[in-house]
């Protein structure tokens, strides 16, 4: 069942965070649904600008519709991740998406407000929720590329004005994470003081944490042992993710970890079975491994076992 992100956020706020997982192909779709059903968790399925053009947006959307039929017990939202205005309007007008993210964080404050407000006005006419971003995450992920020098934390003093003037429904905040597999070096972590201050200024308002993959070190080690070269890859500590979910961070975006699982499975499979040229055996292994990862991550987020609560709320 596809529902509004607003419903999911209302149920989750300061109790747990909803996992927002990016998908690109059929194997990821099937594993994502299986993992969330197994852990009895509501979730958000995210399509990025890159994912929608990787094959064709209609193909991905058709797979999601099919999965909704295959797994009728699932409760989830469909979200556009890191959209520009054109992408947002296309998704809004399609009638398929629960919510869209307009990422104008690279613009100056006033221009960010102006762009976000245009998207919000168009989206709300169609009953679509809007996620905006204030502050700038570093790192690289698809078309998003921000140097460490240009990254900046969200200024809590700007959030009230931004939300009031744009009318956005949730806010992605820069609180120390970054995109990609190289988020941290040394002992850096989340800026909980920023989360706390924003939550005080916006009580009850859902906050979003991008760049939240934990980059499991066992995955990195296994990838490197199978011929990979991921040196120094490090993500967000899972204890910190759990803590953020209790502070008002209601949506946690996870993309890189799914790619790491895919990379590890395929590198190991073709290393160990050099005679194999069929893509399906490795695909089956991946689906099982990614489903297990989703189950684990939902436990970390606190969303595991919450499905029936949400079902009762949407009836």
TrEMBL record:
E.C. no: 4.1.2.13
Residues that hold Zn(2+) 2 according to the record: 103, 133
A GO term, aspect molecular function: fructose-bisphosphate aldolase activity
Cofactor binding, per record: Binds 2 Zn(2+) ions per subunit. One is catalytic and the other provides a structural contribution.
Superkingdom of the organism of origin: Bacteria
Residue stretches in coiled coil: none
BP terms from Gene Ontology: carbohydrate metabolic process
Cofactor: Zn(2+)
Pfam families named among the record's database cross-references: F_bP_aldolase
Binding site for Zn(2+) 1: 82, 179, 210
Keywords: Lyase, Metal-binding, Zinc
Catalytic site positions: 81 (proton donor)
UniProt-annotated binding residues for dihydroxyacetone phosphate: 180, 211-213, 253-256
PANTHER family from the UniProt entry: D-TAGATOSE-1,6-BISPHOSPHATE ALDOLASE, D-TAGATOSE-1,6-BISPHOSPHATE ALDOLASE SUBUNIT GATY-RELATED
NCBIfam families, alphabetized: cbbA
Protein name: Fructose-bisphosphate aldolase
Organism in which the protein naturally occurs: Kiritimatiella glycovorans
Upper classification of the organism: Bacteria, Pseudomonadati, Kiritimatiellota, Kiritimatiellia, Kiritimatiellales
């Amino acid at each position: 069942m596809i529902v509004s992100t607003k419903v999911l956020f209302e149920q989750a706020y300061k109790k747990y965070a909803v996992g927002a997982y990016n998908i690109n192909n059929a194997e990821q779709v099937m594993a994502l649904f299986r993992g969330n059903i197994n852990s009895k968790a509501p979730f958000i399925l995210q399509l990025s600008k890159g994912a929608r053009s990787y094959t064709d947006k209609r193909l991905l959307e058709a797979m999601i519709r099919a999965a909704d039929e295959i797994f009728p017990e699932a409760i989830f939202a469909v979200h556009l991740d890191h959209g520009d205005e054109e992408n947002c309007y296309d998704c809004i007008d399609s009638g398929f998406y629960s919510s869209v993210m307009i990422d104008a964080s690279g613009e100056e404050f006033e221009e960010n407000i102006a762009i976000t407000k245009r998207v919000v006005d168009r989206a709300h006419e169609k009953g679509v929720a809007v996620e905006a971003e204030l502050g700038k995450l570093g790192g690289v992920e698809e078309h998003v590329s921000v140097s460490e020098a240009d990254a900046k934390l969200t200024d809590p003093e700007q959030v009230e004005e931004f939300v009031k003037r744009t009318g956005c429904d949730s806010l992605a905040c820069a609180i120390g994470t970054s995109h990609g597999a190289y988020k941290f070096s040394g002992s850096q972590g989340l800026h909980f003081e920023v989360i706390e201050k924003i939550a005080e200024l916006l009580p009850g308002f859902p906050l979003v944490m991008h760049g939240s993959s934990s980059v499991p070190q066992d995955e990195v080690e296994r990838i490197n042992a199978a011929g990979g070269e991921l040196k120094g890859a490090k993500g967000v500590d899972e204890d910190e993710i759990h803590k953020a979910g209790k502070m008002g961070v209601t949506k946690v975006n996870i993309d890189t970890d799914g790619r790491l699982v895919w990379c590890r499975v395929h590198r190991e499979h073709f290393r160990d079975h050099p005679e194999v040229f069929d893509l399906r055996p490795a695909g089956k292994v991946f689906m099982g491994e990614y489903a297990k990862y989703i189950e684990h991550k939902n436990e970390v987020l606190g969303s595991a076992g919450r499905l029936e609560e949400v079902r009762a709320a949407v009836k």
